[in-house]
Amino acid sequence: MNVGQILKARGRSVVVNQAPTAIDEIIKELADYKIGAVVNVDDDGRVAGIVSERDIMRLLAQKGASALSHPASSVMTAEVVTCVETDSVNQIMEIMTAGRFRHVPVVTSDQRLIGIVSIGDVVKNHIAEVELEASALKSYVAG
Length: 143
Ligand code: AMP
Hints:
The chain has helices at residues 3-10, 23-33, 53-63, 89-99, 119-142, and strands at residues 16-17, 37-41, 47-52, 103-107, 113-118. It is an alpha+beta fold. The chain has a single domain (3-142), classed as CBS-domain, CATH 3.10.580. The strands form two sheets. It has a three-stranded mixed β-sheet with strand order 1-2-3. The chain is elongated and about 65 Å long. The model has no long low-confidence stretch (mean pLDDT 94). Bound molecules: adenosine monophosphate (AMP). Adenosine monophosphate (AMP) is lined by residues 36-37, 50, 52-55, 77, 80-81, 99, 101-104. Adenosine monophosphate (AMP) binds next to strand 3, helix 3 and strand 4.
C-alpha cells in the first residue's frame, strides 16, 4: 500500500491556511473539521508550514488565554517533512517515528500540496495489511 492509494480511498481534502491567522481561528478549524493539524501554503500552493494541536497546547501552557490572539505563525513549524504519492505506508511510519509527528503533507514533484496523511490513516492501513496477511496464512495452513 502506498500514499496514493490511501488518498484515493480517503480523499485528498486538506485544510490549509494562507492569510495570517490567529490561534483561536486555527482552533476553530481543528474542531470544525475534526483534524489535528492545519497546513500553511504560499501563493503557489507550496507547503510553507504546519500548525498542529500540540503547538497550540504548548503555547496555551506558556501564555494562558492570551495565546488565543497570537498569530499562528508564532507556533508554526516552517521546516515541514513531506512525502509523495509513491511513498509506501512503511516509509511514512518510519518518517513519523523518526520525526515524532503524526502528520505528513503529500506534495507533487514541484512541492505543491495535494493531500495529507495522518497517523490514523497509516495505522488503519497497516492493520488492514496485517489482517490480510493473517487470513492468507490461515487459508494456506488450512490447505
Ligand atoms: P503532530 O504530532 O503532528 O501533532 O506534531 C508534533 C510537532 O511536529 C508539532 O510541533 C508540529 O508542528 C510538528 N510537525 C507536524 N507534522 C510535521 C511534519 N510533517 N514535518 C515537520 N514537523 C511537523
